[in-house]
Amino acid sequence: MLTREMLRSGSGLPELYTDRVRLRQLKAEDYPKLERMLSDPLVIRYVNRIRKPVDARMRRLVAQIKVSADSLDSLHFAVEWHGGNTGANNEPGKLNKLNKLNKLNKLHELSHSPLLGIASFQQWNENAGEAQLGYILDHPFWGQGLATEVVEEMLRFGFGSLKLSRIEGRCQEDNQASVRVLIKNKMRLLRTIHAYDHSGEVPSVLVFSITQGDYE
User: Fold this and answer.
1) Residue 162 class from Cβ within 10 Å (0-12 exposed, 13-18 middle, 19+ buried)?
2) Interatomic CA distance for residues 54 and 50, integer angstroms
3) pTM for this entry
4) Residue 64 vs residues 70, 121, 123: alpha-carbon distances, Å
5) For residue 166, what is the enclosing H or E element?
């Protein structure tokens, strides 16, 4: 069982692998790439519910990630291709709805910046055996099944290495792609956190959950 004390002693997070990606501990040198990723309005759209300009939202989120990582309140993994692959090796025709030229240009640019996204266990309560799963992928890598792959591996790690008894996942109500990812990984809808905002600018949030018993 991996404990907070073990992480404080310097053991670090293990590397996790799926068929296509590696999950490794987020490092200081990843933050500039993370800032670039979160500066995309499409990426940060579903990440938080505050009504501020994109740049302000990005800075606030990156600061939260740094603080929670340092305190071990959250465990953050960088997601990247393993084996030195880039998106060009993963059927670029299946990328999202950008035109083909823009896709290839973007992938060429990112071949020197292989951070695809991050995956996290937030609000890790070691005593209760609970944590909240979070994940963000850069826009060019949507629609390839990578999020489903990453979530599956995070659940395996959470119930296996961390010995969690329950994992929660949240997403905005209109983020149907994320809803599908959570359902594919056997997470069940528990409740909806409604936004009492008459402007309609602040979305409601769906809360999903899976227990150790459900996972097995």
Assistant:
1) buried
2) 10
3) 0.84
4) 10, 13, 12
5) strand 166-172
**β-bridge pairing 130-137 and 166-172:** parallel
Whether the Cβ atoms of residue 35 and residue 61 lie closer than 8 Å to each other: no
Residue that is written with structure tokens 């293990």 in the block: 14
Closest-CA residue to 131 (of 85, 72, 179, 181)? 72
Q: Give, rounded to a whole angstrom, the gap between the first and last alpha carbons of the chain.
A: 17
Contacts of residue 123, defined as CB under 8 A and 6 or more positions apart, other chains included, come to 73, 74, 130, 131, 132
pLDDT tens per residue, range 161-214: 999 999 999 999 999 999 999 999 999 999 999 877 666 667 889 999 999 999
- Quick check: 141 and 20 in contact, CB under 8 A? no
Tokens of 30: 């990843």
Give the domains, in start order, of the chain with CATH numbers: 4-215 (3.40.630.30)
The two three-digit tokens of residue 73, written as one number:
């309140």
> Percentage helix, strand, coil, to 5, in the chain?
40, 25, 35
Q: Which residue's structure tokens are 């692959």?
A: 85
Query: What is the per-residue pLDDT across 12-62, written as a single tens digit (0 to 9) for each?
Result: 999 999 999 999 999 999 999 999 999 999 999 998 767 789 999 999 999
